[in-house]
Amino acid sequence: MSNQTTQIENIDAMPKxxxxxxxxxxxxxxxxxxxxxxxxxxxMMIVCLMAPLLTPYGYEEQDLRLGASAPxxxxxxxxxxxxxxxxxxxxxxxxxxxxxxxxxxxxxLLIGVTYGAIAGYAGGKVDALMMRLVDIIYALPFMxxxxxxxxxxxxxxxxxxxxxxxxxWLVMAxxxxxQIQNLKQQEFVEAAISLGLSPGAIIRKHLIPNxxxxxxxxxxxxxxxxxxxxxxxxxxGLGIQPPQSSWGLxxxxxxxxxxxxxxxxIFPGLALTLTLFxxxxxxxxxxxxxxxxxxxx
Length: 297
Known about the structure:
With 297 residues, the chain is mainly alpha-helical. The protein is built from 14 helices and no strands.
């Protein structure tokens, strides 16, 4: 009886296994830049969402008597040429920029993962045809595509989400296709086939969950690309339209008067730059944390 008790105690004393996701989280926490990026991103999202509580001004509220004024006690980041508080406009603009980044990336994620998984699992002529279509779309000039959409359907925020997402999914499809091609050769897929599961069920329940690591990493790296693309389009006048605002649109206004009122360019540019850096640091950290080769070290 004492021997059995000793064996049970020895079993309880043995170190417990760590799952892939727990191990990835431990590795991510050790990456200081990634954690700084994550904390800054969470802080920026909270601040932008709580904008009405943090500032007493409305983002369209004008004071023409004040005009463009430098940062002061009443207006921490100054005002623009219409006397509008810049801190308020940056916070409300951050809402739009972050929303474009996350929603357009979600559109790209949905299309790219679905398309790439089907192509990778089908293989053969179906795979070749689907990927040639991706190559053709990838070769089309994106700016002309955006301009045509704006002319035909008019300018609105939802169309901008769909237009950016409809282009960014191409690389995601290629990444997922490569992952699925490797995974479908594994034994667990053969076991699922022998159990009579349909191809859709195998893709949905077995293949995509096992490819989540690269998908998550590329998603975090796609968000800053989408935000930068929206800023570029807004800078050209093809993106967000007044009275709505975004960091790209604020930067566009700031460039026009940067010599006289430099704070109109510096502060929205700094907000966009720091957010892009935070997202890239977090994406790099996730890539290192989820790298299976690194996890063996």
